[in-house]
Amino acid sequence: MTITDIIGFFGVFLLLIAFFLNLTAVIRLNSSWYLFLNLAGSGLACLASAFLKFVPFIILEGIWALVSLVALIRLLK
To answer: What is the sign, positive or negative, of the torsion defined by CA atoms of 55, 56, 57, 58?
Structure first.
């Protein structure tokens, strides 16, 4: 397992944890924890995709991270 794999797996794990916690009503969609988990997870997944030079997922995860960041900043203001 390479460092790229570890980064990618951890990013996807964070995204899935956020999804699971939301589905089980532990955290809400507009909570800072949900947004932070999405930001961290998508950021790591984007980084792993960049290491792999896989452009479709760089775009997907990069936009996901950007949207999560904007929503988190709005929530914290």
So the answer is: positive
Determine contact, residues 15/40, Cβ cutoff 8 Å.
no
By the 10 Å C-beta count (0-12 exposed, 13-18 middle, 19+ buried), 76 is classed as: exposed
Q: Give the residue from 16, 33, 17 showing the smallest Cα distance to 68.
A: 33
Rounded-to-integer distance, Cα 9 and Cα 28, Å: 24
**Encoded amino acid at 32, one letter:** S
Q: pTM, whole model, 2 decimals?
A: 0.94
Q: pLDDT value at position 54?
A: 97
Instruction: Please answer whether residues 57 and 49 qualify as being in contact, where contact means their C-beta atoms are separated by less than 8 angstroms.
Output: yes
